[in-house]
Amino acid sequence: MASHAEKPLILISSCLLGMATRYDGRSKPSPVILSELGSYVSWLPVCPEADSGMGTPRPPMRVIRQVDGSIGLVRPADGFDPAPMLRAWIERTLPALLSRRPDAAILKARSPSCGLRTVAVLDAKRPGATFPGDGLFAAALRQAAPELPIFDENDLATPEQCQQFLQQLTQR
Known about the structure:
With 172 residues, the protein is α/β, with parallel strands linked by helices. The protein is 31% helix and 20% strand. The strands form 2 sheets. Strands 2-1-5-8 form a 4-stranded parallel beta sheet, with no helix packed on it. It has a 4-stranded mixed beta sheet with strand order 4-3-6-7, with no helix packed on it. Helix 1 crosses helix 5 (159-171) and helix 3 (83-99) packs parallel to helix 4 (136-144).
């Protein structure tokens, strides 16, 4: 937890702050998160997809569990797997992000990189079947920092949820 002299540092998906980093070149700001938390925390924005060099805009992609059980990505438009690019960025960047000692993370729901329990993961063994899972960055973040409180935007959709979040931060 940050000292009382400084604001808590929150790792956050860039698009939730209003940055145009989404696959479609747009942003998806969260007015509730911005208005309820903005003056009480410091932001550490990240967009694994844009920051890893995939560009903005970029073709949509999906998370897929391969036949061998491994988790990858696929761009339905052309079948390309951008997972190696994203994993290389995560391997290079995650230690530096965690060295900043964030107090919590708020990630974009349903994102193939940042989704937390909300990503529709395709199952290669059962074409057409999906199951809920994490995006690649969210999964890596959970594994690298199991003690870090990680939320998605849906967990903080109301002013009351944001106030509870702030209370949890001050109790850590």
